[in-house]
Amino acid sequence: MIDLPVPSFSSSSGCETIYVLDTNVLMHDPTALFRFAEHWVVLPMVVLQELDASKKGLSEVARNVRQVSRYLDTLVSKKSYQDIDNGLSLAELASFANGYSPTGKLLFCHCQGSGDEGILDAMQLLMQRHPQREVVLVTKDINLRIRARVAGLDAEDYFNDQPRQDLDLLFAGVDVLDEDFWETHGQGMRSWQDGERIFYEVAGPRVASWSPNQCLAFPGDDSFDGIVREVKEGMACVERLRDYRHRHSVWGVQARNREQSLALNLLMDPSIELVTLTGAAGTGKTLLALAAGLAMCFDEARYREIIMTRITIPVGEDIGFLPGTEEEKMSPWMGALMDNLEVLTQGQKNGGSWGRSATEDLLRNRVKIRSLNFMRGRTFQSRYVILDEAQNLTAKQMKTLLTRAGPGTKMVCLGNLSQIDTPYLTETSSGLTYVVDRFREWPGSGHITLTRGERSRLADFASSVL
Predict the structure, then answer these.
(1) Rounded-to-integer distance, Cα 362 and Cα 360, Å
(2) How confident is the model over 163-182, as pLDDT tens digits?
(3) By the 8 A CB rule, do 265 and 277 touch?
(4) For residues 108-139, b (16+ Cβ closer than 10 Å) or e, as one string?
(5) What is the SS3 assignment for 54?
(6) In contact, 333 and 309? CB cutoff 8 Å
(7) Is 59 within a domain?
(8) What is the mean pLDDT of the chain?
(9) Which of 253, 259, 256, 211 is nearest to 232 (CA)?
(10) Residues 419 and 288 in one domain
């Protein structure tokens, strides 16, 4: 192996680990440079070459690559060769670190070979020159991690973009209480009524784990359902929720189970500006979101129109470019939403066929389909925005969409975390998971995980055995 220049590390630095970053890590998260605290970050020269080859275009990956290049340019500008060879302090870019405080350094490593071979060669050189330090490859490429481990090298996935290491720990949005809950938490409980709304003041050890707009339920479908409005100093204000299973409906739709009823309460609440619904196919996410949107746009006139969008990722082979306007191009991708919209319009029986035709024409003018690719720079005011298939978006893409919300806009994000089609995204690193976790304590958001399928007996059985 050719003896190429390898960065040297000061023994007094206190650094224990050398992290070698793969190109796909920086493509996925440009701020990955700042996520390794006091440890050293090494970029093989082949990584810089791959970044340079991917910088052109309007895709999210190209934007991330250009951001990484700007970070690196700021670090190396006005630095001598000796400074670069000794390592560049990442603390100089603390203002870009998104709350992280890196104290380590960034170094560049020359290596033999190209692509993955060059990265593995760089790791072997680092291990030979610095046997007293642990050298770890960080990559989103599963096959490269396998190759590295087969060659005796340490390799791991990039975890800093994952709000939860285990999806089972993700906030479900519902706390199912014990039957004796009122006996232990209801002592001296105060209740009051404001119009049709009924409130309770609850105290006790379990209150500390509650979040704003978290739903509460007791075992049994016909029991009490409530929502936490405020948690303060060991006390919680709980409001009793509407029962959309028997007494109430939304645009002709009645909930078929408790979770759907809770979801409709969140969707119909104008004080909740962001609603996230997760669950398997057939749990009713799209139907509930559309029904609530139609009711709030037409019956209550709270929003000017409904905007439906989703990321365009094919399940099988891509069929190529689609003709027509933006809405016509998006129509094939919005089949699920349009199917549910057709079901909801068929329920409007007043006026016969002429009435249904008039309703469909009205809906076409108030329900718009938009592409996620053209969201930058837009501001939605008084809109009801439905984002379908949100599990396929990264955290940065979710940020791009949610920051489009203007005054009086409600965002509804739907997704099935077990059906992710985006490369390098997993259930724990999906942008939808990120939003559910980060917005848990914000009083303007609500979340429900739907678990019971209501599509058909065939669909439920297929989902369980296939």
Answers:
(1) 5
(2) 655 566 788 899 988 877 77
(3) no
(4) bbbbbeeebebbbbbbbbbbeebeebebbbbb
(5) coil
(6) no
(7) yes
(8) 82
(9) 211
(10) yes
